[in-house]
Specification:
The chain has 221 residues and is mainly β. The chain is 12% helix and 64% strand. The longest helix is centred in the N-terminal third of the chain and has 27 residues.
C-alpha cells in the first residue's frame, strides 16, 4: 500500500510540474507571461487562509499560474480512531506552485468541459496532535465549468510520510480533501468558496484534524 501511494505521489508531482510548464509554454506562444502580485484571503468558522504570490492569468484569461506562500490555520475537533479528543489547533504553511485552468468549449456535442488544476508545495504542518513536520506534497483538482466563468471542483492535497521529516507520527498519509466553487467576477477578481476536510492515516491510526468551510476572494491580474 505504501509503495503504491509513493508511486502515485511521484506521478502527481510530475503531472503538476508538467502542467505548469505546458501552461507557460502555451502562454509564450500567445502573450507575455504575467508575473504580477497575487493574493487570496478566505475566512471560516475558527479558520482562515491567506496566500500571496507572483503570477497571474495567462492564455487570455484561461489559465491561472502562480508561485505562492500560504498559511492556513484552524481550530476544530481532533478525533483519533473515532475518539473525540476535543478542540485542537492545526496550521499549514506552504511554499508552492499552482496552475488553475478555465477553458470552456460550448460547441454542441462536445464532451462536458473539464478543467484540471494542479500544483506542488513544500509544507510545514503543526498540530496539537501527532503532526509536526516539514515535507513535500501535491495538489490535484478535477473541475467542471458550469459556465465560462463558474467552476466547481473536487480534489485533494496529499502529503506522504516518506517525503516528510517525521516518520514516527503514525501518519503515513496526510490529506486535505476539498470541494469548491470559483466565480470569476472581473478579469482580476474571483469569489471562492471551499470545504476542506483534513486528516491523517496509518495502519494503526486514523485521525481527523478538521472539517471546515471557508469563503473569500482571490485577486490576480
Amino acid at each position: 500500500m505504501k509503495k503504491h501511494l509513493s508511486c502515485l505521489l511521484l506521478l502527481a508531482l510530475t503531472y503538476s510540474f508538467s502542467s505548469l510548464a505546458l501552461a507557460e509554454k502555451n502562454s509564450d506562444n500567445k502573450e507575455k507571461i504575467k508575473r504580477w502580485p497575487t493574493a487570496t484571503y478566505m475566512l471560516g468558522s475558527d479558520a482562515s487562509f491567506i496566500s500571496v504570490g507572483l503570477g497571474g492569468w495567462q492564455d487570455e484569461g484561461k489559465t491561472f499560474q502562480n508561485i505562492y506562500i500560504s498559511h492556513f490555520e484552524v481550530e476544530d475537533t481532533l478525533k483519533v480512531n473515532g475518539v473525540n479528543l476535543g478542540k485542537q489547533e492545526y496550521s499549514s504553511t506552504r511554499l508552492g506552485v499552482f496552475a488553475d485552468t478555465f477553458s470552456y468549449d460550448d460547441t454542441p456535442k462536445k464532451s462536458p468541459p473539464v478543467a484540471l488544476s494542479g500544483g506542488a508545495f513544500i509544507y510545514k504542518n503543526e498540530s496539537e496532535g501527532p503532526i509536526d513536520r516539514y515535507g513535500i506534497g501535491v495538489t490535484m483538482h478535477l473541475g467542471h465549468l458550469l459556465t465560462p466563468k463558474t467552476k466547481a471542483y473536487l480534489g485533494a492535497d496529499v502529503m506522504l510520510e516518506p517525503f516528510s521529516t517525521n516518520w514516527d507520527a503514525n501518519a503515513f498519509l496526510e490529506y486535505d480533501f476539498q470541494a469548491g466553487l470559483t466565480q470569476r467576477v472581473t478579469s482580476f477578481l474571483d469569489i471562492m468558496a471551499i470545504y476542506r476536510k483534513g486528516g491523517s492515516w496509518d495502519a494503526r491510526t486514523d485521525s481527523s484534524h478538521y472539517s471546515v468551510a471557508l469563503a473569500g476572494l482571490r485577486v490576480a491580474f
